[in-house]
Design brief:
Number of strands: 4
Distance between the termini: 24 Å
Structural class: mainly alpha
Helix content: 55-70%
Largest sheet: 2 strands, antiparallel
Order of helices and strands: HEEHHHHHEEHH
Strand order of the largest sheet: 1-4
């Protein structure tokens, strides 16, 4: 008998375990600088308004797909892609509710960072060599969506804060206990992790009992018990 699988639950568990294993958790600071001089090839990334974030987030996959198909590439494109991937990881892949649309979310500033870089990547793709028809089509779609939602008019406290590829933005971990959606998400992930670990232990214990008892072992194979 095969134990049921929950791919959605394991995705949350993998996100939590991988992040906590790989990322430092500062008590209050949320900008991670190396302490070394800024590299000469650092790219300054203009921020975007709070309203623009949702539109860019909805089109993020399409922008990254165009960038992945771009040939030839250049250092700016590759550096922006790397920064986006790191910041998306820092923001727990956008899994925390409210990270994009809630200004008070501890994950909102780091979401600003990877979405601003995603928009910068799209703008850079416009200047790259090759057929730009698909890029122009996506830019036009995004501009229409922003106009339809008055996206450029919706500002928040991070809208005027520029970013750069030499500085990673960490979530504001110390604010999580005071932001109910984030706190609930982490509580849910913890409960899911504990529940899955408990189920795995029970499954392992049951398998061990079956393996040690000849009658149970034969019954699990659909064989009649031996006398």
């Amino acid at each position: 008998m095969t134990a049921p699988r929950s791919t959605g639950g394991w995705r949350w568990i993998a996100a939590l375990v991988l992040y906590l294993a790989a990322a430092p958790i500062p008590a209050s600071a949320h900008r991670e600088a190396s302490g070394e001089p800024t590299p000469a090839d650092t790219i300054v990334i203009p921020n975007l308004s709070h309203g623009q974030m949702k539109v860019i987030a909805d089109n993020r996959a399409a922008i990254l797909a165009l960038a992945a198909q771009q040939m030839p590439t250049d250092p700016i494109l590759r550096r922006l892609e790397g920064f986006i991937n790191l910041q998306y990881f820092d923001c727990l892949w956008g899994l925390i509710p409210g990270s994009v649309d809630d200004e008070n979310s501890p994950f909102n500033e780091c979401s600003h960072a990877y979405l601003a870089a995603t928009r910068a990547l799209l703008l850079h793709l416009q200047a790259m060599p090759g057929d730009r028809a698909r890029v122009r089509e996506l830019v036009a779609k995004i501009e229409l969506e922003m106009l339809a939602n008055d996206a450029s008019l919706i500002l928040c406290r991070y809208s005027d804060e520029p970013f750069n590829t030499a500085e990673r933005i960490e979530p504001r971990w110390s604010d999580i206990p005071f932001h109910l959606p984030s706190l609930a998400a982490f509580a849910g992930m913890t409960a899911l992790l504990v529940g899955c670990a408990s189920a795995a232990m029970r499954y392992g214990s049951a398998s061990a009992r079956v393996g040690s008892d000849p009658a149970l072992r034969e019954a699990s194979r659909g064989l009649p018990p031996t006398s």
